[in-house]
UniProtKB/TrEMBL annotation:
Primary location group: membrane
Biological source species: Erinaceus europaeus (Western European hedgehog)
Segments of skewed composition (Pro residues): 715-729
Residues covered by the SEFIR domain: 529-682
Membrane protein topology class: Single-pass membrane protein; Single-pass type I membrane protein
Protein name: Interleukin-17 receptor C isoform X3
Length: 729
């Protein structure tokens, strides 16, 4: 349901000022003059043709000022019509300025009339919507009343019957015409502004109007009494050409009319009658019956309704001229259109005061760079073709339309036909004295000389741009008397720059890719764990089981363990010496560690090697080939100080004390297991070692795995000799 906005009775006036009007009797139009003047009103209306201006032959009477007054022409006490009284104040044109010159001195070309007066024919022309009238008056001014610098008197016409609420334009001039005609526009009041509205037939029994809002719509409800017929019309008022009707409806009963607020524009006007005319007689023999007129106000918006009477004299009201919503709607619907070859047009529903200018829109730029004052702003006539002051179009050229110093509209008209904006630079060529020419680049910061050290791309490429201009690669946009505007392409220079940046980007990407591969390799190696090579001497089967248990326990940690016990096939194929050297070299290359597990046999082999330079034959033949083969490359690292960070030594509690390990081999960390398992595991994992808590947990797991094998190694071997037989008795 629409929400009522307000309810307005036309018996209540809108304006706080209520007019009290003088009453005139009779139906005849009359004229009267100020004292001393004589005047006469010609019978019948005239066809108004002002004619062209003529030089005054001497002193002549001319209209100097127009003044109007509203009165009532009454036929009975309660039966009156609104009437307009017009006073024309006269002056003398062409009067000599000298103090000794009288009106008819020897220098005057106009001879006096017989009665010694100046005579003039004064024309009054009235025009309202769809109606006009022209009257002629004769005025004579005695010579005694004519003085330099003083008015010559006045003549008053009464009166012109006018429509309530109408807009009337009045012109006054003489025939023949010696100066530009005077003109005056008069907006007349309606019934609500008149104190004597009960005396005007047109103001009686008016309908009620109700305006409400329903969402985005404005609803106009007209409540018409039984048997009453009224009309309502809206149209667009154009400054050039005929009006454009928009909406008209004859109403014969109560009705609600919906008007969307987006349809409001400043030139949307209401067509209304003044009063229906019963005749054309100037004397008013057939006076008007009147037009009942109703208006409802919606902010600054007005609507009017009128009775449907024959021969109605209609007036026009344009109530939306100052409505901010109407102006927003107007600019929202305005469009710029390109007309070939170099013309354009601002299309809008209403005429509007506006100025247009050209600007330069770089690709990807936020603001359009104005080309003023080089190409100044020009006034715009709506819906009229205008010429660009250009020689050629360009996709970067745009049109800006300003109104009240505010940017209302911008459009790059050539962007569709000449492709998207290009990365061009504007060069301004200035012709100096002696045919000297200078060039500067139009940029947001100003006009930068192209041959300068300014930190702009145009200055950096100044010589190249000038070569392009002289070779005909630039487009001439505008040519003035001493200045010329060029658009020079920058694409090829930007392409070169982008090629270098592209190559640098490729190189950077390759470096990053290599670093990524290296990092990936490190991460992958860290994920697989550090390589650990276990070297041991084969004392007996129990010790080999202990070494195997340790290798298995270490393999469950992030370590890659290599031990000869697990590589029997490779040992058989390569031999002990080649296998040990290959595994040691691989561990060294990957940042791994070599673990020397000392047993009594291993310690003895090391002492023999250190004493004799070669291992002896301690232990059963062939049981220590792998360990013995490693001493030739392991012990030199210890003797030459290269063992730190690459070797770790360990012995087992109860099998060999750390002091039994030869002193030179103490250059690398030496641990006793399982007592020092946390430290041992931390040394094996190096930088990838976890925190102390996790190391202790890992040490407990390794200790549990070693305990059974370590207990077997610690038991004394059984006695192989048989028991002695008992002596016989």
């Amino acid at each position: 349901m629409p929400v009522p906005w307000f309810l307005l009775s036309l018996a209540l006036g809108r304006s706080p000022a209520v007019l009290s009007l003088e009453r005139l009797s009779g139906t005849q139009d009359t004229v009267h003059c100020s004292p001393g003047l004589s005047c006469h009103l010609w019978d019948g209306d005239l066809l108004c043709v002002p004619g062209s201006l003529m030089p005054a032959p001497g002193p002549v009477l001319v209209p100097a000022r127009l003044q109007t007054e509203l009165v009532l022409r009454c036929y009975q006490e309660q039966d009156c019509d609104l009437c307009l009284r017009v006073a024309i104040h006269l002056a003398v044109h062409g009067l000599p300025e000298g103090p000794d010159q009288d009106l008819y001195g020897t220098d005057a070309e106009l001879k006096p009339e017989e009665n010694g007066s100046l005579q003039a024919q004064v024309v009054l022309y009235f025009r309202a919507y769809a109606a006009s009238r022209c009257v002629l008056m004769e005025v004579q001014v005695p010579a005694a009343l004519v003085h330099p610098g003083r008015p010559a008197g006045s003549v008053v016409f009464e009166c012109l019957e006018v429509a309530l609420g109408a807009e009337v334009r009045i012109w006054a001039y003489t025939q023949p015409r010696y100066q530009k005609e005077l003109n005056l526009t008069q907006q007349l009041p309606d019934c609500r502004s008149l104190e004597v509205r009960d005396s005007i037939e047109n103001c009686k029994a008016l309908p009620w109007l109700d305006v409400a809002t329903d969402g985005e719509d404005v609803l106009l409800h007209v409540d018409i009494s039984e048997g009453q017929r009224v009309g309502l019309s809206l149209y667009w008022n154009q400054s050039q050409g005929p009006t454009r009707p928009w909406w008209h409806q004859n109403l014969t009963g109560p009705q609600t009319i919906s008007l969307n607020h987006t349809d409001l524009v400043p030139c949307l006007c209401v067509q209304t009658p003044g009063h229906p005319r019963r005749g054309c007689s100037r004397q008013g023999a057939n006076r008007a019956t009147g037009a009942s007129l109703a208006r409802v106000t919606l902010g600054p918006v007005s609507f009017q309704v009128w009775p449907l009477e024959p021969d109605s004299v209609r007036t026009s009201l344009c109530p939306f001229r100052e409505d901010p919503r109407a102006h927003r709607n107007l600019w929202h619907g305005a469009r710029l259109r390109l007309l070939p070859p170099q013309s354009w047009r601002l299309e809008a529903r209403c005429p509007m005061p506006a100025e247009a200018s050209l600007c330069w829109q770089p690709p990807g730029g936020d603001t359009c760079q104005p080309l003023t004052p080089l190409l100044p702003r020009e006034n715009v006539t709506v819906n009229k073709a205008l010429e660009f002051p250009l020689l050629n179009g360009h996709p970067n050229l745009c049109v800006q339309v300003h109104s009240a110093e505010k940017l209302q509209l911008q459009d790059c008209l050539w962007a569709d036909s000449l492709r998207p904006p290009r990365d061009d630079v504007l060069l301004l060529e200035v012709q100096g004295a002696r045919e000297n020419r200078s060039f500067c680049a139009l940029e947001p910061g100003g006009c930068t000389p192209v041959l300068s050290r300014a930190p702009t791309r145009a200055a950096r490429l100044g010589e190249q741009l000038l070569r392009d201009l002289h070779s005909g690669q630039c487009l001439k946009l505008w040519d003035g008397d001493l200045e010329t505007l060029w658009a020079c392409p920058m694409d090829k220079y930007m392409h070169q720059r982008w090629v270098l940046l592209w190559l640098a980007g490729l190189l950077l990407a390759a470096v990053l890719f290599l670093l990524l591969l290296l990092q990936k390799g490190r991460v992958k190696a860290a994920a697989r764990g550090r390589r650990a090579l276990l070297l041991h001497a084969a004392d007996d089967a129990a010790f080999e089981r202990l070494v195997g248990a340790l290798a298995s326990a270490l393999g469950r940690l992030p370590l890659r363990v290599a031990v000869d016990l697990w590589s029997g096939r490779e040992l058989g194929a390569l031999g002990p010496a080649a296998w040990v050297h290959a595994q040691r070299r691989l561990a060294m290359q990957e940042g791994g560690v070599v673990v020397l597990l000392f047993s009594p046999a291993a310690a003895a082999l090391c002492r023999e090697w250190l004493q004799d330079g070669a291992p002896g034959a301690h232990g059963p033949p062939g049981t220590h080939d792998a360990f013995a083969a490693s001493l030739s490359c392991v012990l030199p690292d210890f003797l030459q100080g290269r063992a730190a960070g690459r070797y770790v030594s360990a012995c087992f509690d109860g099998l060999l004390p750390p002091a039994a390990v030869p002193a030179p081999l103490h250059a690398a960390p030496l641990f006793s297991l399982p007592a020092q398992l946390p430290e041992f595991l931390g040394a094996l994992q190096g930088r990838d070692a976890p925190g102390p808590a996790r190391l202790r947990e890992s040490a407990r797991q390794v200790a549990r795995a070693l305990r059974p094998a370590l207990e077997r190694c610690s038991r004394p071997p059984p006695d192989p000799s048989p028991a002695a037989p008992a002596d016989p008795e």
